[in-house]
Design brief:
single chain; about 400 residues; alpha+beta; Beta Polymerase, domain 2; four-stranded mixed sheet; two-stranded antiparallel ribbon
């Protein structure tokens, strides 16, 4: 008889599993998991506090880098421990990081985008069990709130959108097959092709990276520049269609991640790719574009300041509300939703006023300028013909006032 947590080494029918709110007999495995909750909570709390202590001493991107590195260590240590609990002879595995932690742009409640590679298919089940144990640790010790009948956690857990070792665990060859099979329905999985190795057997990642390179090459005959322009257009098209609705909604609220952070991150990424830059960190991309002479001094300073201010706003919001809450309001809604009403009642409604409000309004205007620069870059670089004169809009001396 398995225990409630699925540990095959326990023969007792009485084990209640790993829910810390239940009392009763636990096998040695489940007892160890429950005892680990306290250490996990303490570890995450201490590392988040260190981020709070850095806020007045360092630039926001340095704080984000510090948290990203801490978050990676938390996940790595938990994964090693849980894998050792699940197997007396842990299999060869490689963990690969994606998303904001990979870019060193994560905030204290950002989720974790990563996946696992194994040497043999027979190792998949035990690695997925260990990943589920890690997810359980992060969610049990995390804060959460009820929303329309479901429980939503604070954000620091494996990605619920698919980029998680609970769902993505395979041999290097099997992982490419999985991405090819599932990416049409979930484009988010394509981010795995550019993931960064962070723990385990390096040769597994190297094999995957080579297979990913071949897979991309076989995807078509388009040049890297054309692929960058296509990616930029794919991102900006819905942004352009959304502009009238965005302008209307921005009178009442904005969404930091989607409307302030993401436009700059995506536009800069594709412009960098167009000029052959493979670095995944947005600030490194900006610095390399400047070094290559593809940004004016004014645009460089504009983007550096913008990225720093948005990062500061995101971190402050995360720490203030204790969750990955990216919406900030300029006034309390006349007809609040159930979640909004609950936050107002608890005194946790994310209302911004005064100097912060003025700063957010400025960032909103700047984000539109960045979208406009991206649109003009795509228009200019897409020109064809012998007499085409391609002008790089990122060489402008007035980025704040740019409009396409």
């Amino acid at each position: 008889m398995k225990c409630a947590a699925g540990n095959i080494g326990n023969l007792s029918v009485n084990c209640i599993g790993t829910n810390p709110k239940e009392t009763g007999y636990r096998c040695a495995f489940c007892k160890g998991v429950v005892e680990r909750y306290a250490r996990t909570r303490k570890d995450i709390g201490a590392r988040r506090q260190s981020v709070a202590n850095m806020m007045e001493l360092k630039k926001s991107h340095e704080v984000q880098r510090g948290w990203s590195e801490r978050a990676q260590i938390i996940v790595q240590d938990l994964f090693i421990e849980m894998l050792n609990r699940r197997s007396c002879r842990p299999p060869q595995v490689a963990l690969v990081m994606c998303g904001s932690i990979q870019r060193k742009e994560a905030c204290p409640y950002s989720d974790v985008d990563c996946f696992a590679l194994v040497g043999k298919s027979e190792y998949v089940d035990v690695v997925k069990l260990a990943a589920a144990d890690v997810q359980n640790q992060l969610e049990v010790v995390g804060t959460y709130w009820e929303s329309e009948g479901c429980r939503i956690y604070d954000g620091f857990h494996f990605c619920h959108g698919g980029l998680s070792p609970e769902k993505m665990c395979a041999t290097p060859e099997g992982m490419i097959d999985f991405i090819d099979r599932e990416a049409e329905a979930n484009g988010h999985l394509l981010d795995a092709l550019g993931g960064t190795f962070f723990y385990g057997k390096r040769s597994l990642f190297d094999e995957f990276a080579e297979r990913a390179r071949i897979y991309r090459h076989e995807g078509g005959t388009k040049s890297s520049r054309q692929k960058a322009l296509d990616g930029l257009k794919k991102y900006l098209d819905p942004e352009n269609k959304d502009k009238p609705f965005r302008a209307k909604e921005n009178a009442d609220f904005t969404i930091i991640k989607d409307r302030l952070y993401r436009p700059a991150q995506q536009v800069i990424k594709f412009v960098a790719q167009y000029f052959g830059i493979s670095d995944v960190e947005t600030r490194n991309q900006v610095q390399k574009l400047k070094t290559m002479g593809k940004l004016s001094t004014q645009v460089f300073n504009f983007l550096e300041d913008y990225l720093n201010e948005v990062a500061k706003l995101r971190i402050t919001n995360h720490m203030k509300w204790g969750r990955e809450y990216e919406i900030i309001y300029f006034a309390k809604p006349a007809k609040p939703s159930a979640e909004e009403a609950g936050l107002i009642q608890k005194g946790k409604f994310p209302l911004t006023t005064g100097a912060e409000l003025r700063q957010v309004k400025k960032l909103m205007a700047d984000s539109e300028a960045i979208r406009a620069l991206g649109n003009e870059f795509h228009r200019q670089m897409s020109q064809t013909g012998f007499f085409a004169s391609k002008k790089n809009p990122f060489m402008t001396t007035n980025p704040q006032g740019f409009s396409s």
